Amino acid sequence: MNKTEQLETVVVIFGATGDLAKRKLFPSIYNLYKKGHLSSNFAVVGIGRRELSQEEFQANVQKSVSKLEVDEHLSEFANHFYYHPFDVTNRTSYLNLKDLLGELDQKYQTKGNRIFYLAMAPEFFGEIAGHLKQEGLTSTEGFSRLIIEKPFGHDYPSAEQLNEQIRHAFSEDQIYRIDHYLGKEMVQNIEVIRFANAIFEPLWNNRYIANIQVTSSEVLGVEDRGGYYENSGTLRDMVQNHMMQMVSLLAMEPPIKLTTDEIRSEKIKVLRAMRPIQETEVDDFFVRGQYTSGTINGEEVIGYREENNVRETSTTETYVAGKILIDNFRWAGVPFYIRTGKRMTEKSTIIIVQFKDIPMNLYFNQNDQNITPNLLVIHIQPNEGITLSLNARKSDQNFKTIPINLSYCNNCDDVVNTPEAYEKLLYDCMRGDATNFTHWDEVALSWKFVDPISHVWENKTDTIPNYKAGSMGPDEANLLLAKDGFYWWALPEAP
Ligand code: BG6
Fold first, then answer.
1. For residues 160 and 310, what is the distance between their CA atoms, to the nearest angstrom?
2. Which of 16, 257, 384, 487 has a CA positioned 20 to 30 A from the CA of residue 214?
């Protein structure tokens, strides 16, 4: 981030009493403030249904950021926060908000710049966007931008409908659809690793890469989100967005320039080249799972069907593994395997690029077996970094090889100051940089890809639950790779 750039803006958060605001948004705004990216010309308006006094709201804000550090400027920061009780369906609420925004504009000299952040139930997105325009809240001399949290629709038709509603009020370049994975430091680094290093790009294709594995495993279960999860499942919650975004960054062509449009257009091409999965072949390409009770880190945990707000006979998936093929010149024949799930062994997001075997083994490893293929590991979280795994020889071992790792750790020295995804994305939006947000075309293509899979799964009521909490998922996920002669690499240690 450029330290000297300071931004004047009013951020309006719909859903300001919710979890996201508390856990991510307030701390992110605070960090931007602390780092000097927000001048004193900023205000945040919290919108919520419940009645809350100004003092209570500011106290909540202080509480949510005070975990970060003790700071004498905290109350000064919290003074920029205003609470506004609101009924999203009522026109008068918008007219009152408009007056408040006008006053704040004057008070903080924010030049009419407004960001509307919808951190709430998606069924209201269309209605809110429409009112913001109709009641004139977006007609200012500054910018008006809309940030939208997922889920963006439930399938392609509902996403399209939602998009049309929003587009009546905001143009595509005013809409910032959040995929918080795109704000992660090492996800942003995928492009840099690929396009700033002469040694990788020549190998980055089907002549040298055998397969790519993307794992995002979680230890937590659905917690208090059973109701949401029952309608979503892992395919919609994680695959349609985060996993497909990572695959498109791994597979895209080098953009001709590092501009939003050029990068997005290359990612869109990848999504267009993904081989569609027909309903009759879903089982050949995708595996779902649901966790039963089990033990994680020595603690007993309940199965998904016992969670709050989950049906006793639920067939909602809490795990997905899949094989994605990209039918273009660079990737024809190279499987991209993805897997993600709740209640797995560890919390980790890791990409492993497995290079092809060398044409002939002159050397063998210490167990007299063929040497291990070269692997490039991109550690997304919790550790951030890269590891390149090579084969070498230890002295006195003659022709025996051992794998050695060349590693770089991005957050080992300074975990605290690595900016969080939300902080980076909010800052990008304030600066008008939409590169790390999802374009409508990406949303549409990803829904079209996953819809046949969810359609088949919704009509199939057998086969789950099928993996124990604390495991790496159902056996079928291993068979998926075994059919191709591969296996999931164990999740590597920190770089
Ligand atoms: C969210 C999903 O988008 O991503 C959650 O809704 C999931 O179910 C979360 O837990 C994972 O994000 P992260 O950053 O913890 O990997």
1. 28
2. 257
Cα–Cα distance between 469 and 490 in angstroms, integer?
17
3-state SS, one letter per residue, for 128-172:
HHHHHHHCCCCCCCCCEEEEECCCCCCCHHHHHHHHHHHHHHCCH
User: Each residue of 297-323: pLDDT tens digit?
Assistant: 999 999 999 999 999 999 999 999 999
The atom of ligand 1 lying closest to the CA of 225 is 8
Strand pairing class (385-392; 400-409): antiparallel
Match 């917690």 to its residue by tokens: 223
Q: How far apart are CA 268 and CA 251, in angstroms?
A: 11
Q: Return the pLDDT at 360.
A: 87
Instruction: Tell me if 149 CB under 6 Å of ligand 1.
Output: no
Beta-ladder partners of 47: 14, 84
Catalytic residues: 242
Mean pLDDT of 180-193: 96
Please work out whether the CB of residue 179 comes within 6 Å of at least one atom of ligand 1. Answer: no
**Positive/negative CA dihedral, 295, 296, 297, 300:** negative
Which range of 367-371, 402-406, 437-441 scores highest in mean pLDDT? It is: 437-441
Sequence length of the chain is 495
